[in-house]
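INTERNAL AUDIT FORM
Audit reference: QA-55
Scope: verify that the stored structure record matches its stored sequence.
Auditor: D.O.
Record contents follow.
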Amino acid sequence: MTSATSASSTAPNKTRAPLAITAAVVGALVVAFFIFAGLYSDFLWFQQVGFTNVLTTQWYASAIMFVIGFLGMAVPVYVAIQLAYRLRPGYAKLSSQLDRYQELVEPLRRAATYGIPALLGLFAGFSAATRWETVWVWFNRTPAGTVDPQFGLDVSFYMFELPFYRGLVGFASAVVLIATLLTVAVCYLYGSIHASGRELRISKAARIQIAVLAGLYLALQAVSIWLDQYATLNQTGDLITGANYTDDNATIPGRVILAGIAALVALFFFVTAFIGRWRLPVVGTALLLVAGLLIGTAYPWVVQRFQVDPNAKSLEQPYIQRNIDLTREAYDVKDVEEIPFNAKTDTTAGALREDAETTASIRIIDPALVSPSISQLERFKNYYAFSEDLDVDRYSINGESQDTVIALRELRQDAEDNWVNNTLVYTHGYGLVAAYGNQRSVDGQPVFLESGIPTTGALGDFEPRIYFGEASPEYSIVGAPKDSTPVELDYPSGEEGNSETYNTFEGDGGPKLDSVLNKLVYALKFQSEQIFLSDAVTNESQIMYDRDPSTRVQKVAPYLTLDSDPYPSVVDGRVVWIVDGYTTSDAYPYSRTVGLSTAIADSEDNDQRFALDNINYIRNSVKATVDAYDGSVTLYAWDTEDPILKTWQKIYPSSLQPISEMSGDLMSHVRYPADLFKVQRSILGQYHVTDAGKFYSKTDAWSTPADPQSEAAENLLQPPYYLTLQMPGQEAPTFSLYSTFVPRGTGDSASSVLTGYLAVDADAGAEDGTIGDDYGKMRLLTLPKEVTVPGPGQVQNAFNTDPEVSSLINLLKQGQSKVLNGNLLTLPVGGGLLYVQPVYVQSTGETSYPLLQKVLVAFGDQIAFENTLDEALDSLFGGDSGATAGDTNTPPTDDPIVPETDAGGEADPDTEAGDGGTGGTETGDPATDAEIKAALEEARTAMAERDAALQAGDWTAYGEADKRLSEALARAITLIG
């Protein structure tokens, strides 16, 4: 009976065991396939884009470091456990409690002997694999050619070598410490260490092993303390970054002494391993602890408190000078040309005559405000969209450089649409829109130099399809057999845009779905069975993903920090995204540390990109392009002297192209990057002072002014602006990037008078493979303290409180309109500083968009407010400024303002944006058409009377005419239906 019951109970166990094993194997295979799918899809992506070596280098390096980390931890720990066990005493007298412990541990001893080192090795291996870059950078390090003033070492030691050495010592210390603790545990468990009351007995074998391990640990600490002296050149103090007087005369010598003491104590432990006496190492360890307190903490405090603090200005001066010099070197601002600028504040007739070229190029189109206007005028269909903040570029039009506001017409998918439409049909955007930066139409619309679908204009023929952009869908499947019917929607066609044109992608834009394996891998990656099951996915299909230009560049160049504003340009018949890449470090000696996200934050870009992104060295080392049609990525080595870039070129050979491969057309669209300029202006706010004494006093510290358009509570900084301007010392205007400075202060101590004006030459020229001589040249205008030049905040306040301006603004706000102030620009012209601000009017309707109606200008304490910039400048400078602005003859739009827009800028909903404004004025009913025509004529008459009243200052007549205009427009819109 008993045997039968036993047999019946064991049968289910025997049945369940194979099932459990099978389930475990199947589960492991599924997990392994998912891992394989991720790795394989990565390989296909990098292979298609042509940067396979980047991925394989990462895999290869990570695998090697994993093995090194695993063996580096597992082997010493295993050896320590084995030695402690094998050298245990044969007849140890153990307590009853230890006997019980042995009984519990002994069955698991063999598994623990291998399992503990293996588990620790796995953790160490994964940790080491994530730090492969530190090791590879050390192996491929490149000297910088600059030495630090404290130790006389090349600065590459701090950027490449010191992190490796400290990491290596830290890893070795962890291994030795863990091995020591496990040795002590095993020795105690098996009787090599026996404690009885106050008596502690250690066997000879255990003594030797523990003493040697302790000596190794102390020796490693000696090396660590020795390396710590070099780390003082990167520490941030209250005054400067880097070693100060106390560090030089107390901290650094103290660490050298402590390192020597630690090495001596390590020697005591090695001696103990042979002589068997613990007194020397115990006394030495106590001495090390006391010395650490006295030499490492107390002595530096005494020096600082009683020697430095009373004489700080004189004693710290050499170290402040080091900080100034190396900070300016690290941020590449050491060659800034400082120009004293005795700015005029009085306006006189003809003052702008010598600045006629600059005046003609002043940009009055604000790229941060006109996106709604371009969307209404050029979107055409709801599945297109433009970026909220447009980009500023320049093009050569009729042989002259023209500042341009540019935007791509990107795809905007409907999230609720079906898989076929979102994946196979709506795959790309189409064309771009470019507007003159210095022109406006009569009614305030941008004047386009490139627009429409199909795209036409001054930029010539180019590939208009946008498959890769900042708003592209997560993935699309493109391509088809040659004889198949195209299914990728290209653009609306026909007179009314009621028919559509389709296209088939013909480039190489993504991995091919030409096998069952590839389809299955991407079906898993994007969690879509349609990729695997759909008949529309053929062997000719390609899958496009990771389509954002910054994402693509970051994947193929992971060592770069990318600029936050990639911008599109038409280059050599293609639309390409231009992306600036930076090499950065936080280990440059004596250089001030800044948070990158904080330094680049302003009213246009206030996103905190990284939680920890401290840097104290930066170079614009790489210019990258991403083709908007096929996504191809090209990296150009821009700063060939940068040691970090040289080092990474050794790690990823053949991934960068030389500048000589850049065409002149591409070179003409390269610009000085805004994020780099923001970081440099934040540094120059304090480090424009090159005298250590003045720097210590902080009497001439500057800051970037707050953006006058931002909310007071936010206090966001004014962004730098791209403009074509001529700085003092330049022979002709050039495409530049500028910013202003006001005195640094907070609360009541803050002042918003202008103290400095910083501009950098942002034009790289237009020659094949040759950077312009003046590209990157920085000029800093310093204003004398005895001359008060209003800053942006003061000028904006003057605009807002001027009675005449306020009256006009109130008139513009009549009805349901709102007034939007554009970017407040500052230009060094007329011997002083000119402020220019476009003023837009927008109605509050759902389809409204801003129209440029007025321009505000200021010079000194004088202001003017007119319909055009040219009129405003003439009014400001005694009736004749001596120069003409770009909006002198404002061109008409293709059709008059009505009925497409009302006085407040509200678009007729029946007039599809971009159709010229004529589609909704004919109903087919002659009587109705006649009424519409009469209403339009009445609106035109009222608009002319309103403008005349505005010029005459007759506000009553102005209000009456504006009312008639609104009524006529409303009647026309009603008749159109």
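Auditor finding: record pair retrieved intact. The longest helix spans residues 2-49.
Action required: none
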